[in-house]
């Protein structure tokens, strides 16, 4: 069974190690000790926590979001490049860089500019998964 260090869990969840420690200390995230006494998180427990956290993030003030796109990346706009018709919007969501091509009109209507918080929703017919 896989287990993760605090740092590894933090990278996977897109938060700081201190946040993972606080979640463990408050009982939100189960953590144990390995044979050397180091704090570790069980892989199955971490997966369940990450899925629950993602579900909870999809709940707005008015209840669940109403979209068929399940892959949502909330982040900050780091770059916007526009021409006459299209625009390229770059978003940093935790450790993930998401790049979207949208119309210039959409950028203007949404008020997209560097520093704005946005959610990129991804829906794809083909997803590739690699394991390190």
From TrEMBL:
Coiled coil: none annotated. Gene3D superfamilies: 1.10.1660.10, 2.40.50.100. The keyword Iron-sulfur does not apply. One of its GO terms (biological process) is molybdate ion transport. It comes from the Bacteria. The keyword Oxidoreductase does not apply. Pfam families: HTH_17 (PF12728), TOBE (PF03459). GO terms for molecular function: DNA binding. Keywords: Molybdenum. Residues 66-131 form the Mop domain. This is Helix-turn-helix domain-containing protein. It comes from Streptomyces antnestii.
């Amino acid at each position: 069974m896989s287990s993760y260090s605090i740092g590894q869990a933090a990278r996977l969840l897109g938060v700081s190690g201190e946040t993972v420690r606080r979640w463990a200390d408050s009982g939100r995230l189960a953590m144990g000790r390995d044979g050397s006494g180091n704090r570790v998180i069980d892989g199955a427990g971490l997966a369940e926590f990450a899925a629950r956290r993602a579900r909870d993030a999809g709940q707005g003030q008015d209840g669940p979001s109403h979209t068929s796109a399940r892959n949502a990346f909330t982040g900050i706009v780091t770059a916007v490049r526009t021409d006459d018709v299209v625009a390229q919007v770059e978003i940093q969501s935790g450790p993930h860089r998401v790049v979207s091509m949208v119309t210039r009109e959409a950028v203007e209507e949404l008020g997209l500019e560097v520093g704005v918080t946005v959610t990129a929703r991804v829906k794809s017919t083909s997803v590739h998964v690699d394991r390190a």
